[in-house]
TrEMBL record:
It comes from the Eukaryota. Residues 28-69 form a coiled coil. Residues 207-241 form the ATPase AAA-type core domain. One of its GO terms (molecular function) is ATP hydrolysis activity. The lineage of its organism: Eukaryota, Viridiplantae, Streptophyta, Embryophyta, Tracheophyta. This is Proteasomal ATPase OB C-terminal domain-containing protein. It comes from Arachis hypogaea (Peanut). Keywords: ATP-binding, Coiled coil, Nucleotide-binding. Residues 73-149 form the Proteasomal ATPase second OB domain.
């Protein structure tokens, strides 16, 4: 290999020795031109690289924003295989891009009782989905952002209080009559269930507390949950529609 390099060098030296001054100047100009073109190409490539980095950063921010909770819970109804039509569209005709997509698409039903067709699934591999799966979708675009365990329901999870209520009826003043009615309707049937069964008394299914804000409704409910060792769920009226 060393001998080959020596031969190439000697050949170039001989070729250079046979060149005239004009040939050398011309070759030098050609090399300068090639160097300039390569520098311009390198500069253009660096600019494209910076542009791609900015696009990647922008898309990552969009994905991060779209993946922010809360998700809308959806249920996979059907998975379809998209086969675009083989016939070419006429020139100037309107082209439906969704009909030209290849791969799998999804039909899902959301917790708002909407049925949505997704030609683009989202961030989850469609091959990993099957009918009946629970998924978290974006509340605006309905793109699937994550899969949820089958026993998981984000609506209930969002309502559940992590800390057990510690309030007591002694913390509530001026509602002795309401507290007594609450104890008779809710607490006693839960703490002395066998007595109600023995007497054949059917306890009410629930109690409606009503009144202006700040009158102790939530405090009574928390005290009731603490006394019965029950899970306390707090939810707004619109959430009842989704349950």
């Amino acid at each position: 290999m060393a001998s080959a390099m020596v031969e190439d060098t000697s050949f170039e030296d001989d070729q250079l020795a046979n060149m005239t001054t004009e040939d050398i100047v011309r070759a030098s100009r050609l090399l300068d031109n090639e160097i300039r073109i390569l520098k311009e190409e390198l500069q253009r490539t660096n600019l494209e690289l910076e542009s791609y980095k900015e696009k990647i950063k922008e898309n990552q921010e969009k994905i991060k924003l779209n993946k922010q909770l809360p998700y809308l819970v959806g249920n996979i109804v059907e998975i379809l295989e998209m086969n675009p039509e083989d016939e070419a569209e006429e020139d100037g005709a309107n082209i439906d891009l969704d009909s030209q997509r290849k791969g799998k698409c999804v039909v899902l039903k959301t917790s708002t009782r909407q049925t949505i067709f997704l030609p683009v699934v989202g961030l989850v591999d469609p091959d990993k989905l099957k009918p009946g799966d629970l998924v978290g979708v974006n509340k605006d675009s309905y793109l699937i952002l994550d899969t949820l365990p089958s026993e998981y329901d984000s609506r209930v999870k969002a309502m559940e209080v992590d800390e057990k209520p510690t309030e007591d009826y002694n913390d509530i003043g001026g509602l002795e009559k309401q507290i007594q009615e609450l104890v008779e309707a809710i607490v006693l049937p839960m703490t002395h269930k066998e007595r109600f069964q023995k007497l054949g008394v059917r306890p009410p299914k629930g109690v409606l507390l009503y009144g202006p804000p700040g009158t102790g409704k939530t405090l009574m409910a928390r005290a009731c949950a603490a006394q019965t060792n029950a899970t306390f769920l707090k939810l707004a009226g619109p959430q009842l529609v989704q349950v």
